[in-house]
Design a protein that fits this description.
alpha/beta; five-stranded mixed beta sheet; four-stranded parallel beta sheet; 14 helices; 22 strands; globular
Length: 477
């Protein structure tokens, strides 16, 4: 556990980012769809455009920006780093550059944005259609099989040709369509719209009568699909390796782990709300929803914006019992086994704090489904007096805990209620409970301690970089 909180940094300094997924030389126009991107910029009349690349495509960033400027006459700004995950559109960094639109390159979670117009350029990675079709036939020898074909967005360009090969042989096959943003109009009966995918379901038993065939490598997207549609058997084909398989990821085991975290959330008294996105539409509404939910459940909450969460950052907040991460559907499922405190999703926090929400076997990773008016929203039940509340026993600690909801009309406790003598004039100052806890720590970080630290002469320090100082290996005098 100690190694998760600190390291010598040598691995990060020695790591090299190679253009493994970059476009082949001389094929920038096709790989990055320059014509479509230029038409988008000219059609919108944009004069400043932000280009967002993942790490593996940064090798082509300068060349793409130069060609786009020559084709459109607009200024192009390359976003060197993303605030959170690279699959999300970084509207914050784009607004810092004064951009009027964003061209997002590479894999994407397709979460709808709030402010800026966005064009997704996935990058046309090669796909052996014949090999993929043959793998599908081996996995599903029954020609009457009901199968939904899903794909990583970087292979979306090849799905039309694959559909032409398989549809004549499999009359019940369904190909999903990649949809950027929220499609207009209401959802039709028997239609599924989720994760930026859209496809019809015509089987009498609904989606559970279908199997899922995923074209792409193992990753967060596939994990999110399998947890959400956990009643469907999954198989996959990895175009990079040419290997196909029936997915053996134990969904029930993964769900058991997530339900254990729900129980930890029920025991928690202090919850840290991690802001994992500033660009996905509805993030402010879900933050307010979570604050109200925690207040009604009698828990204290703190909202934290820490960028990309890691064990070292979150270990600084010792008073927090559990964290809830507000992020896109792909980045919400954070493996917190190396963290000092667990990290749950908004849906798991709802299961813990909303008595009206029951576990049905369906798992939700999109926080927008929990908001009022959404498909999975569940209203909080009326408050029950503490004397009439049914006792609840923790399955982890075996202790009794409060399980009733507070009255929402009751005034909230102010954030700071403790009074203390501030100076010799007997003036009073307020000290918040969080500040009192900080004062009680044995280590509180760097402090100025003006007038307390003795003055000493400046001496020459070590020279070089942290990985290899000039005096490394020599005995110190």
């Amino acid at each position: 556990m100690a190694t998760a909180f600190s390291s010598d940094g040598e691995a990060a300094l020695r790591r090299e980012l190679g253009p493994a997924a970059a476009a082949p030389r001389g094929q920038l126009d096709g790989f990055y769809e320059m014509g479509q991107a230029a038409a988008f910029v000219r059609g919108g009349g944009f004069r400043k455009v932000a280009l967002q690349f993942p790490d593996e495509l940064l090798a082509d960033a300068a060349a793409v920006a130069a060609r786009m400027e020559a084709a459109t006459g607009a200024e192009m700004y390359i976003l060197g780093d993303t605030t959170y995950g690279s699959c999300c559109v970084d509207e914050v960094a784009a607004e810092h550059a004064g951009a009027e639109a964003v061209l997002h390159y590479g894999p994407a979670c397709l979460s709808p944005c709030r402010k800026l117009p966005v064009l997704h350029i996935f990058g046309q990675q090669p796909l052996d259609i014949g090999c993929c079709a043959e793998a599908f036939r081996e996995l599903y020898p029954d020609r009457q099989s009901r199968v939904v074909v899903l794909n990583d967005v970087i292979y979306a360009h090849a799905m039309g040709e694959l559909e032409q090969q398989l549809c004549p042989e499999y009359p019940n096959i369904v190909f999903s369509r990649v949809v950027c943003g929220d499609p207009p109009g209401p959802t039709l009966p028997g239609e599924v719209r989720q994760f930026g995918r859209q496809f019809p379901v015509e089987a009498p038993g609904g989606l559970q009568d279908y199997a899922m065939f995923y074209v792409g490598a193992e990753g967060l997207a596939l994990t999110s699909f399998m947890l959400t549609w956990n009643q469907c058997p999954f198989s996959s084909f990895d175009p990079a390796t040419g290997c196909s398989r029936h997915e053996t990821f134990n969904v029930n085991r993964a769900l058991m782990r997530r339900l254990y975290l729900v129980e930890r959330a029920r025991d928690a008294r202090v919850v840290g709300i991690l802001v994992g996105t500033l660009g996905v539409a509805g993030y402010l509404a879900v933050l307010q929803h979570l604050r109200e939910l925690l207040h009604r459940a009698g828990k204290r909450s703190y909202t934290l914006a820490v960028g990309k969460p890691n064990p070292a950052k979150l270990a600084n907040f010792l008073e927090v019992d559990i964290f809830v991460l507000v992020a896109c559907a792909q980045n919400s499922l954070l493996d917190s086994s190396d963290f000092y405190r667990p990290v749950v999703t908004p849906y798991e926090l709802e299961l813990a704090c909303n008595p009206a929400r029951e576990w049905t076997g369906n798992y939700l990773t999109d926080f927008r489904d929990l908001l009022p008016g959404a498909c999975a929203h569940v209203e909080l039940p009326p408050a029950v007096p503490a004397a009439e509340a049914v006792p609840d026993i923790s399955l982890i600690t075996g202790e009794m805990r409060a399980a009733h909801l507070c009255d929402p009309s009751a005034p909230q406790q102010p954030p700071s209620t403790v009074l203390a003598c501030r100076d010799q004039t007997r003036a009073l100052a307020e000290i918040s409970p969080a500040a009192s806890f900080l004062e009680s720590r044995s280590w509180r970080g760097l402090e100025q301690q003006l007038g307390q630290t003795p003055i000493s002469k400046a001496v020459q320090g070590r020279r070089g970089i942290a990985i290899a100082y000039e005096d490394e290996g020599r005995e110190q005098p």
